[in-house]
UniProtKB/TrEMBL annotation:
Gene Ontology MF term list: 23S rRNA pseudouridine(2605) synthase activity
Every RNA-binding S4 domain range: 2-59
UniProt-listed NCBIfam families: pseudouridine synthase
Enzyme Commission number(s): 5.4.99.-
Protein name according to UniProt: Pseudouridine synthase
Domain of life: Bacteria
Key words of the record: Isomerase, RNA-binding
Organism of provenance: Siminovitchia thermophila
Transmembrane segments: none
Family statement: Belongs to the pseudouridine synthase RsuA family.
Alphabetized Pfam families for the sequence: PseudoU_synth_2 (PF00849), S4 (PF01479)
Length: 242
């Protein structure tokens, strides 16, 4: 279920603020009844009219995108930097990122126009595993990696337990490649975790989101999720199993 004003905005009728005004003015009906309460939630099967004109709700879309570095995880940017939706010029629906990846981080990002789906996959309590590969300065010891695994204190609180795996350690070049899996989505979390143990991230890529991978995609490319994948993600978020 999604808020009525959001559904109206996604259908391209008006901005969300304008949609709220239309609702407050009694110009919107749901299943034949005038609705003026802004918190009203509707389903895709509800019949909505705006100024007496039936609303055609968008078909729900789900995409897996390989985000390049130097791209904003947003639908617009006030500094005119490239955003993820710039890579979807032929998609008519108003899709938006499910969560985010930092500007300098590449890798797997989902986009959709399904608000419930987005909430399920981004709410911390659902603990969706996200796996990153980080190129870090120096050669972190096993004990330091164990600190990340147990959870480490950051400015906004202690992180949840993580999983780590040393992939390569290059003594000559002075850097390492470490795989880390977390279940949270705090701002720049992986980078801050490695900063906290004295091994700053030089390059970061999200390789996996739950059971999804980037297999078959190059940076800047995307594919639609299959109905089965969408169902598995929802089940995973709700039950912890898929």
């Amino acid at each position: 279920m999604e808020r009525l004003q959001k559904v109206i905005a996604h259908a391209g009728i008006a901005s969300r603020r304008k949609a709220e005004k239309l609702i407050a003015e009694g110009k919107v009906t749901v299943n034949g009844k005038v609705v003026t309460e802004l918190g009203t939630k509707v389903t895709p099967s509800d019949k909505i009219q705006v100024n007496g004109i039936p609303l055609q709700q968008e078909e729900q879309k789900y995409y897996l995108f390989y985000k390049p570095r130097g791209v904003i995880s947003a639908v617009e940017d006030d500094k005119n930097r490239k955003v993820v939706t710039d890579f979807f010029p032929h998609v008519e629906e108003r899709i938006y990122p499910v969560g985010r990846l930092d500007y300098d981080t590449s890798g797997l990002l989902l986009l959709s126009n399904d608000g419930e789906f987005t909430h399920l996959l981004t709410h911390p309590k659902h603990e969706i595993p996200k796996t990153y590969v980080a190129k870090v300065k120096g050669l972190p010891s096993r004990e330091l990696l164990k600190k990340l695994e147990r959870g480490i204190q950051l400015e906004d609180g202690k992180t949840a337990p993580a999983k780590t795996k040393m992939l390569t350690a290059d003594k000559r070049k002075g850097h390492s490649i470490v795989e880390i899996t977390i279940h949270e989505g705090r701002n720049r979390q992986v980078r801050k975790m490695f900063d906290a143990i004295g091994h700053s991230v030089m390059k970061l890529k999200r390789e996996r989101f739950a059971f999804l991978t980037l297999h078959g995609l190059n940076a800047g490319e995307y594919r639609e999720l299959t109905p089965h994948e969408v169902k598995k993600l929802k089940v995973l978020a709700r039950t912890g199993q898929c």
